[in-house]
User: What shape does this take?
Amino acid sequence: MAGQTFGQILALGGGGFMADPESSLDDLLLSLSDKSRPRVCYLPTPSGDSDRGIAAFFEAFSRRECVPSCLRLFGVPVRPAERLAEQDVVYVSGGNTANALAIWRLHGVDRALRAAWERGAVLGGVSAGANCWFEACVTDSFARDLGPLEDGLGILPGSFCPHYDGEELRRPVYRALVDSGFPAGIAADDGAALHYVGSELHEVVASTPDARAYRVEPGAETPLEARILGRAF
Assistant: This one.
């Protein structure tokens, strides 16, 4: 649509506050908002609304210049679409991608997330919280063995694979899938993230010098240059 302003997405291959409460990737996520104290909603559906993850989120984000909150969907959800419409930033947890997508679709959260992006909000997350934004991904949602998922939210084109250097089977499984006709896409190491403006990749960022991202196509894997982040924005 002409004149439409779309939001930004930061898809983390691994890391974030669960690994480091002072993560520079989380600092970047907040800095993408144009608000001085953005309203940040943690959406822990992939983790089954893990109390441990929720506590870690509040511990990490209460130290930052933001207004943190959490939207639980297990139990009786409280106005999920309306609450997401009030947020400047939405941060999705790691966990089970397929389960999260199913629950979001039951409660209209999938539509609310797309609406948030369409009005210019910042969306982000780690692992499953990164998988969800793409058309397809590599996941262990269905079994311990990795496999394909091809019904993501589709806000971002192509496929995604997190933990590319963190789990030994990620690279060979993703490469084999793409070589066999699975949508091409991008893989990210732990500590690396993809910053999208609208649906276009703006840059790759990393919290450590050795973290990388790769464009994966049939028969080819191309490293992408990453900007190494400092601690403050």
Summary: The chain has seven helices and 14 strands.
